UniProtKB/TrEMBL annotation:
<dbReference type="GO" id="GO:0071949">
    <property type="term" value="F:FAD binding"/>
</dbReference>
<dbReference type="InterPro" id="IPR006094">
    <property type="entry name" value="Oxid_FAD_bind_N"/>
</dbReference>
<dbReference type="InterPro" id="IPR016171">
    <property type="entry name" value="Vanillyl_alc_oxidase_C-sub2"/>
</dbReference>
<dbReference type="Pfam" id="PF02913">
    <property type="entry name" value="FAD-oxidase_C"/>
</dbReference>
<dbReference type="InterPro" id="IPR016166">
    <property type="entry name" value="FAD-bd_PCMH"/>
</dbReference>
<feature type="domain" description="FAD-binding PCMH-type">
    <location>
        <begin position="12"/>
        <end position="193"/>
    </location>
</feature>
<dbReference type="GO" id="GO:0003824">
    <property type="term" value="F:catalytic activity"/>
</dbReference>
<dbReference type="InterPro" id="IPR004113">
    <property type="entry name" value="FAD-bd_oxidored_4_C"/>
</dbReference>
<dbReference type="InterPro" id="IPR016164">
    <property type="entry name" value="FAD-linked_Oxase-like_C"/>
</dbReference>
<dbReference type="Pfam" id="PF01565">
    <property type="entry name" value="FAD_binding_4"/>
</dbReference>
<comment type="similarity">
    <text>Belongs to the FAD-binding oxidoreductase/transferase type 4 family.</text>
</comment>
<dbReference type="GO" id="GO:0022904">
    <property type="term" value="P:respiratory electron transport chain"/>
</dbReference>
<protein>
    <submittedName>
        <fullName>FAD-binding oxidoreductase</fullName>
    </submittedName>
</protein>
<dbReference type="InterPro" id="IPR016169">
    <property type="entry name" value="FAD-bd_PCMH_sub2"/>
</dbReference>
<keyword id="KW-0274">FAD</keyword>
<keyword id="KW-0285">Flavoprotein</keyword>
<dbReference type="InterPro" id="IPR051264">
    <property type="entry name" value="FAD-oxidored/transferase_4"/>
</dbReference>
Amino acid sequence: MAPWLTDWRGRYTGRAAALVSPANTQEVAEVIRRAARHRIAIVPQGGNSGMVAGATPDASGDQIILSLRRMDGIIEFDTDSGLVHCQAGVILQNLHDAAATKGRRFPLTLGGKGSATIGGLISTNAGGTQVLRHGTMRHLVAGVEAVLPDGSIYDGLSPLKKDNRGYDLKHLLIGGEGTIGIVTSAIVQTVPALVDRCVVWVGVESPEHAYRLLLFMQTRARERLEGFEILPQRALNAVVKHIAGTRAPLETEHSWHVLMELVQDDPNQSAPATLATNLLEQAIEAAMIENATLASSEAQAEAFWKIRDSIAEAERAEGPALQHDISVPVAAMSRFIIQESPVIEQKWPGTKTVAFGHLGDGNIHFHVKAPVGVDTVQWYATDGKVITSHIYDRVVAYAGSLSAEHGIGQSKIAEFARLSDPTRISALQAIKNAFDPLGIMNPGKLVPLAQMPMSA
């Protein structure tokens, strides 16, 4: 079980009494019924690629891991509606590949697409690089099937456009991190395959220039703009240093970089490369950008995206760092990066900030690298905690969120409880208590436990 007891980042390691891997929904239900009978806590797990230790058991050794990895079948693909019924253990990349064979695509992607599962993506309401146009996982799920804490099976798979029968259980389960039920299968929405795309790499002076470019592109090409990512030169340097086969897209060095993707999914639309060229010429004249290049082939387009998708891996190779998945209003994001980054580096000498990610939807991954030579465990426990609290305090001051797309898990639960409106916490606890009165479903994740019943 060792590989399944530690989270992807290597920050949390737990123990488990067993790992069970059911093959279908009925077996999941039977496992949960027995666990409820004996008051055994269950930790659901998909690809174990989460960022907040939401699928890692605690240190007691009393919990069991329930892995959905064997439930990896695509049950039905309706090419007319574009709806796909798949089990929770389907790997995202496999869904992409299956959709491609039908002339469709599933418009959610992220760096961990080779290991992330559909169930995990639903349970954390994952985002990724295409949220700007298509929304988070919540917007792409038309129906879910789940096993509830008493072992009963909730069938919400009918993809109704209108359903006014009270509380929407589907939306409680999406983003619920397995705390009120385990998603076993889902109906997800695909979209037509692209006719063409143009991936653009741009060098800019500052995050403010990147924000101005975003507004410019949205005004002129909102329905064609599918991705808009920002990263600093130091993130690009780390990728080129640690990730084989990568190189800087521009010959010139810039303080900040923007990665954009313009798409064509209708034959009647203009070619995205033509659109991009015209808009970039205007942006240069308006002094928004310093340099730019268009990917000349699909291979080069993938190479540009590989840089963005490899930042987390490269940063991990660089050494210990604190990772913060935050969001603030889009209009405030550039100001947050510009104003808050130097404050941290000044207050904690030796640290370096790296802010990158989805500027288009206000979600930035704000990393703080540890000073060279520190004792990692001690730094995480001392300065690391203080820095994290400082960052989340600043996020709240900007009317933001301490979790944009990765969830709360166990790594953020204390700060979530500290900073959240008591009304929000009370509502979450009430929902958790109502669904899971025994407290056996992924305890210690998402919902602060102050008012939760004790589980054996």
